[in-house]
Amino acid sequence: MQHLDPRAAYALLEENPLAILLDCRTETEYMYVGHPAGAEHVAWQDGPDWEIDPEFAAKVKRLMKGDLTRPLLIICRSGRRSVDAGEALEAAGFSNVINVLDGFEGQLDDNYHRGTSGGWRFLGLPWFQS
């Protein structure tokens, strides 16, 4: 799995029309915290049970129209869930998986807040919020 910072991930998406950005956070995070412009959403895990979706890879495969070689960038809140999701996709045969470092909200700061020093939103990359 490759790892790119948010700016490099955005540049790749702009340069390669076949690349897909997958947001693997929960539906609530995707809708209310916000999400990168153009991101597709398939939750790696979601409430109320928080178990990993056993159909995750199959859902992403449908999203990719069966082409498991297309560049697939994965983003989550901080870059941790996306690594786990990416490893599962690689195990399922996806060959061009790219993790977005620091995710959408970035790492925790000294006050245990996100979004203050890194991540897609902090860097001012295009995003939407419901």
UniProtKB/TrEMBL annotation:
UniProt cross-references to PANTHER family, sorted A to Z: RHODANESE-LIKE DOMAIN-CONTAINING PROTEIN 15, CHLOROPLASTIC (PTHR45431)
Cross-referenced InterPro entries: Rhodanese-like_dom, Rhodanese-like_dom_sf, Thiosulfate_ST/Rhodanese-like
SMART domains: RHOD
Domain Rhodanese: 15-116
SUPFAM superfamilies: Rhodanese/Cell cycle control phosphatase
Protein name as annotated: Rhodanese-like domain-containing protein
Pfam families in the record: Rhodanese (PF00581)
